[in-house]
Design goal:
heterodimer, A: 406 residues, alpha/beta, TIM Barrel, four-stranded mixed β-sheet, four-stranded parallel β-sheet, B: 300 residues, eight-stranded parallel β-barrel, 11 helices, 9 strands, 43% helix
């Protein structure tokens, strides 16, 4: 297929010849290439990297252990300030029950992330991780995005590398790539998230993690205030670190969900998602796996992602709280994910966070209850305070009051 | 299959308005999604250039006493099954004369009202035309007996059919309807659009699996490639949602139906339906053109 743009045609040839795109070339492709050409190129690169035709997914659960957060990013509808009546911290027993439910449907991991809660010290995380590993030795903890690690570092006055070492010693298996938003400080300043982590700080946590032997993912939340060149800059920074460490297993892009957020505004469109995904596949020539974000795009556009560079349908998820708070309410259980993969002409396989194949779908082997909606962290109105919190020192007045002996 | 030679051959045949032979039809069935999308996009652009039309619709139930709000509607659509000829006529007269084209009804409901009697059916259509109706808003191909003849009767009465729809079809039956529609012939401009995505899928048989994104955009693409007797391939903003509707535009659709006529003010000016539909059309690299219920452009 040739286009009316000689520059785009030349870049298409370069991609097909295995060449690496520069910043300006990536920008030209995104700005000028027809959508189908971008998709076709990304699909070719995907097929070359994953010639078996397997599309993977993971059965895990997105658990947000607390919604109390001092970061106050203006794109977030999930957080509650310290002292809010509907702020929560999940107890260890609650988390164990969630793990039991996850294992029951074939899951083997928690994706555990939460707010920057000043009343949860590093010791709480260490105790939680140890308790999980003691009770479920084979269960994986994919936990704490870079800004949470930085928060713990600042809170405990400990180096980032030490935080990572201590969490690994307690049972941390891998780090999710959340909190990256767009790795450009101008953008982060406008999103009021520069304070939680600058672009360099986010990347530095990942560098430390990779050096310590952890694998991580990388993400991008686009569609807020960034320019196209800043979206490309983000991809370049991920690619550069991957060249250096090789520690990213996957890249996941999703669009900002504006409902109920301070920032508000509109959501980037479905076509923009597919184009952004395709561009990521072309630029990130050193990242094996690209996930489809069905949770923000819906099942239909999520499935179409498989023609635009994605080779993974992400997670069955079971529970989700963050994008739901901002208006996204899509749900796909394992059967639905598998059906969509097969319908697109691929072979579904379960995987773990390291993208090692675990086998055929669980639902092919035994009956698994159908799921029509993602579970929430807690039932509405549940304001219970976990018993074990009294063992940890609170820093804020409201935290201290909550933990005072009655 | 992504065979460049095959695609080139198909592209040439389609561009020359030549009919596809049976072998080519079968090959088209098995062609990969992106190649189909490219072909359909080319076919759509030959017909409509960069333009994508949309219409803001105010719906009024046939048994409602009055239109709740006209808003910025460019089409007033009477919905529901009329209890009698008089009820249908009264509903049309109640909203006609406001400078906005009035459409309404599903053709099979009107045929039922005429007890499937040909002369009575023709008389009913003339009554509605006189009352101010410009088009029957829907002809469901899987609910209507002999749709091709029915369209001719509608055209004789001075009306158009806004769109052919499929109510509920799954799997191969979806594509079978596309081929069937492609084989019909209609008087000029008697049918304005074909909406190829089933509208009540799963409602009549809820245990069945819903269509996937691949199923839907493939259906849209094949409709554009095969149905050359209808000018527009239509998707529904409200029914299919903005994301699928927008992606369908890049797979051969050129018209968006059912954009709300009344904006939800609480969402702010950037998220009004009008701005949102325009934004989505532009983001798909097309030029938005607002039309009315008679398929006439109203964009200055």
């Amino acid at each position: 297929m040739s286009t009316s743009s000689p520059a785009v045609d030349a870049l298409a040839r370069k991609v097909r010849d295995g060449g690496r795109l520069s910043r300006s070339e990536a920008l030209t492709l995104y700005a000028e290439a027809p959508t189908h050409l971008l998709g076709r190129l990304a699909d070719e690169v995907r097929a070359a990297r994953h010639p078996s035709g397997v599309v993977t997914y993971i059965i895990d659960r997105n658990v947000n252990y607390t919604n109390i957060c001092v970061a106050q990013c203006n794109f977030c509808a999930f957080y509650r300030p310290v002292g809010a009546a509907d702020g929560y911290v999940l107890g260890f027993e609650e988390l164990f029950r969630k793990i039991d439910d996850t294992i029951a449907v074939g899951g083997e991991q928690l994706l555990l992330q939460g707010g920057h809660n000043p009343d949860l010290p590093l010791e709480w995380y260490e105790d939680l991780f140890r308790a999980v590993k003691a009770r479920y030795p084979a269960f994986r903890l994919h936990a704490l995005s870079p800004p949470e690690v930085i928060h713990l570092s600042r809170l405990g006055q400990v180096e980032v590398s030490v935080v990572i070492e201590r969490l690994m010693a307690a049972g941390l298996d891998s780090i999710p790539g959340g909190g990256a938003e767009v790795l450009v400080d101008r953008v982060r300043r406008e999103l009021n998230c520069l304070g939680k982590a600058t672009a360099d700080e986010w990347l530095d946590v990942m560098r430390h993690a990779h050096r310590a032997g952890l694998r991580t993912t990388a993400t991008m939340m686009y569609g807020t205030v960034e320019r196209l060149d800043e979206r490309v800059e983000h991809l370049m920074r991920v690619r550069d670190l991957q060249d250096e460490t090789g520690g990213f297993t996957a890249f996941i892009a999703w669009s900002f969900q504006p409902s109920h957020t301070e920032r508000g505004g509109t959501e980037a469109t479905g076509v923009e998602y597919l184009r952004t995904l395709a561009l990521a596949r072309l630029v990130l020539d050193n990242v094996d796996n690209l996930q489809a974000s069905w949770v923000t795009q819906g099942g239909k556009v999520g499935q179409l992602s498989l023609s635009f560079g994605a080779n993974d349908m992400g997670s069955v998820m079971i529970e989700e709280n963050v994008v739901r708070a901002a208006g996204a309410t899509f749900c796909m259980d394992e059967l639905e994910i598998v059906r969509n993969i097969e319908n697109a002409g691929f072979t579904p396989r379960r995987r773990n966070m390291h993208y090692e194949l675990l086998g055929d779908p669980i639902a092919w082997e035994r009956d698994v209850p159908r799921m029509t909606a993602l579970v929430e962290a807690r039932a509405a109105g549940d304001a219970s305070v976990p018993e074990e919190l009294v063992r940890y020192r609170a820093r804020t007045p409201s935290g201290k009051r909550q933990r005072a002996p009655r | 299959m992504s065979d460049d030679a095959l695609m080139a051959e198909l592209r040439e045949t389609l561009a020359s308005d030549g009919g596809l032979d049976e072998v080519q039809m079968r090959l088209l069935d098995s062609t990969d999604l992106l190649s189909l999308g490219m072909l359909a996009d080319e076919a759509r652009q030959r017909r409509h250039g960069q333009q994508t039309t949309f219409v803001r619709v105010a719906e009024v139930a046939v048994d409602a006493s009055a239109l709740e709000s006209l808003g910025q509607a460019r089409e007033i659509r009477v919905t529901g099954v009329p209890a009698s000829v008089e009820a249908a006529e009264t509903a049309v007269r109640a909203v006609a004369g406001q400078g906005v084209p009035v459409t309404g009804f599903a053709l099979h409901d009107l045929m039922g009202l005429a007890s499937d009697h040909a002369a009575e059916f023709a008389r009913l259509l003339r009554v509605l035309c006189d009352a101010g109706l410009v088009a029957v808003s829907e002809l469901a191909v899987d609910r209507t007996e002999d749709p091709e003849s029915a369209v001719a009767v509608v055209a004789d009465a001075g009306l158009a059919v806004s769109r052919l729809t499929i109510q509920d079809a799954r799997g191969d039956a979806r594509l079978a309807w596309v081929r069937t529609v492609a084989g019909w012939s209609f008087p000029p401009r008697a049918v304005q659009a074909f909406a190829p995505l089933p509208r009540a899928e799963g409602k009549t048989a809820p245990e069945s699996e819903p269509a996937t994104g691949y199923d839907d955009v493939r259906q849209v693409a094949l409709s554009r490639l095969l149905v050359d007797n209808i000018d527009s391939i239509q998707v529904d903003w409200a029914l299919h949602g903005p994301k699928l509707a927008q992606v369908a535009l890049t797979f051969g659709a050129d018209d968006i139906d059912a954009v709300p006529a009344v904006d939800a003010d609480e969402l702010g000016p950037r998220r009004t339906s009008l701005e949102d539909v325009r934004r989505n059309i532009r983001a798909a690299s097309f030029v938005p053109v607002e039309r009315d219920g008679a398929f006439e452009s109203v964009t200055p």
